[in-house]
Amino acid sequence: MTKVFTLIASLTFSTAIMAQHKTALLNGQVTGYTTQDKAFLSYRNGTQRIADSVIIGSNGTFQFNYTIADPTIASLTIGKTLALAQRSKSLTFYLENTAIKVQSTDSLKNPSVQGGKTNTELSQLKTRLEKIAPLRDALNTKYFSASQEQRNSPEFKKEIEQLSENYQLENKKILETFISENPNSFVSLDRIAEVVGYAPEAEDLDRYFKQLSPEIRHSEKGKAFALQIDQTKATSIGQIAPAFTQANPEGKNISLADYRGKYVLLDFWASWCGPCRHENPNVVKAYHALKNKKFTVLGVSLDQPGKKNNWLKAIADDKLEWDQVSDLNFWDNQVAKLYNIRSIPQNFLIDPNGKIIAKNLRGEDLELQLSKYIVD
């Protein structure tokens, strides 16, 4: 089962014909908490990530003020600290330009969300997706009830991959139908990313985007999505890889242009990304096998601010001998944004002339995959 860490995010910019930014209220009433607990709300307002918190009142109430232009996905958690809250049940819903009310009598286990057209549409989609919950539950039960020895067997991996593919196929069918039937919904816009997968091609994004209404496509989020499509086109196979310069661990600037004349595997990863760390041994093996054939790797880390030591330790622990760069800015890494990275691990194989010739090569046979493109 392929595993990646994914960010689904919308960029935004202003223009006179777009929706007005408005301030609205989120009111909540929950049971099962005390006045020592806090409600934590996170969402995006354009390019800005917002994280807010308030103390739960004595009667279980809380209130947030927020300002947005278009309906945006939000996450609500509750706990004494953010760390504890993140390990507990969370609620995903939409903030809209209208009053929203969240109620729960069982510590966010079965909350209700009232207010806004988009939340109604999200509820309708969740009802449809519940029909395939047995497929998801069977997959999870099969995997998590198995021993590590069972998980390592080829037969088990094949069975899990098949169960995963079955679930993903049914999930995609439901989402495609929802998008087709709800072209004037921001839920449809936000779910395109899930339909096309973690590393989509521009034509797939464009195909679903064109199904949406002019109102959605011309909204701030719609304009930002169109920009994402353009960025994806710029990193398609056959395009010249976008140029960049970023600092290595010692602070020295490294430029992609420095590698002209070599095959370069531009590898996006992070120390906190389990699937990336799992893939690193395959990259190390391929690097040592091919480094004398005008081939190298350039790592771009999406490690977080203040976590440089984690980055350096991962480089040492995983024996990554090639150049590494990062601005330690998490998903806002400037190179990652340039290459429209929404999930990791991801990579791009760039030829000696600077052209992208392959994408997302990985697995135990990575060396063999790379060898098909590398000409001595």
From TrEMBL:
Main location: other
UniProt-listed Gene3D superfamilies: Glutaredoxin (3.40.30.10)
GO cellular component: cell envelope
Annotated Thioredoxin domain residues: 235-376
Keyword Disulfide bond in record: yes
Coiled-coil intervals, chain numbering: 146-177
Signal peptide: 1-19
Protein keywords: Coiled coil, Cytochrome c-type biogenesis, Disulfide bond, Redox-active center, Signal
Compartments, record wording: Cell envelope
UniProt GO molecular function: antioxidant activity; oxidoreductase activity
Cross-referenced InterPro entries: AhpC/TSA (IPR000866), DUF4369 (IPR025380), Thioredoxin-like_sf (IPR036249), Thioredoxin_CS (IPR017937), Thioredoxin_domain (IPR013766), Thioredoxin_ResA/DsbE_sf (IPR050553)
GO biological process, alphabetically ordered: cytochrome complex assembly
PANTHER family cross-referenced by the UniProt entry: THIOL:DISULFIDE INTERCHANGE PROTEIN DSBE (PTHR42852)
Identification of the protein by name: AhpC/TSA family protein
Source taxonomy: Bacteria, Pseudomonadati, Bacteroidota, Sphingobacteriia, Sphingobacteriales
